[in-house]
Write a structure and sequence with these properties.
By secondary structure, the chain is an alpha/beta fold. The chain has three helices and ten strands, in the order ββαβαβββαββββ. The chain has one domain: 3-Layer(aba) Sandwich (Rossmann fold), CATH 3.40.50.2020. Strands 5-4-3-6-7-8 form a six-stranded mixed sheet. It is globular. It starts with 5 loop residues before the first strand and ends with a strand. The chain binds inosinic acid. The site of inosinic acid has 14 residues, from strand 6, helix 3 and strand 9. This is Phosphoribosyltransferase domain-containing protein. It catalyses: IMP + diphosphate = hypoxanthine + 5-phospho-alpha-D-ribose 1-diphosphate; GMP + diphosphate = guanine + 5-phospho-alpha-D-ribose 1-diphosphate.
Length: 181
């Protein structure tokens, strides 16, 4: 129930943003995005699985723009010693060369995951890459790039709900919860 502490996979979390607060953030982000692309070639939305599917579903409906959406998974793994780290985007069904891309992400924390994804999108020849993140943690951010559209800046603490998980659980909570100190 809204307003109460919850337990997810053995950890306690306290309510942080209500459903209506989240909805107003999504509405504002959608308005920003609409105004940025007004009268211009529209982007392909790239929804980063797993966490961003909830935000992407709300954002897409709030946007009211004729846009395509693709669901991608970013996989990064250690290759052989000589190759070092190999990264790849899974799920892309169309080439991005020359396209405008809007990455839809649940949370940008240190920003390392997004930095690698952006490198990969640029390598694929995307014409423009912008980022919409429902949440950021500015104190933890170590990237040297801009997150263009942000729903809410959070303190540097662990959160669950609204698509975000702890050990695979908690994604279905409609509010955002922060780890109880
Ligand atoms: P980054 O590479 O440090 O920016 O981490 C990004 C990814 O870590 C996100 O896409 C989330 O999957 C996960 N993550 C970061 N912070 C949290 C959190 O507070 N709760 C749940 N997942 C998180």
């Amino acid at each position: 129930m809204e307003g109460e502490t919850v337990e997810v996979a053995g950890l306690k979390f306290t309510p942080y943003l209500s459903q209506s607060q989240i909805a107003s953030r999504v509405g504002r982000v959608a308005a920003e995005i609409r105004s940025y692309y007004a009268g211009q070639e529209l982007p392909i939305l790239l929804c980063m699985l797993n966490g961003a599917f909830v935000f992407a579903a709300d954002l897409l409906r709030a946007l009211q723009m004729e846009v395509e959406i693709e669901f991608i998974r970013y996989s990064s793994y250690q290759g052989t010693a000589s190759c070092g780290e190999v990264s790849e985007i899974l799920g892309l069904r169309q080439p991005l060369r020359g396209k405008r891309v809007l990455v839809v992400e649940d949370i940008v924390d240190s920003g390392l995951t997004m930095a690698r994804l952006m490198q990969e999108l640029e390598r694929q020849g995307a014409k423009e890459v912008r980022i919409a993140a429902m949440f950021t943690k500015p104190e933890a951010f170590r990237g040297n790039y801009t997150v263009h559209h942000v729903g809410e800046e959070l303190p540097n603490r662990f959160v669950v709900g609204y698509g975000l998980d702890y050990n695979g659980l908690g994604r279905g909570l409609p509010e955002l919860y922060i780890r109880t100190e």
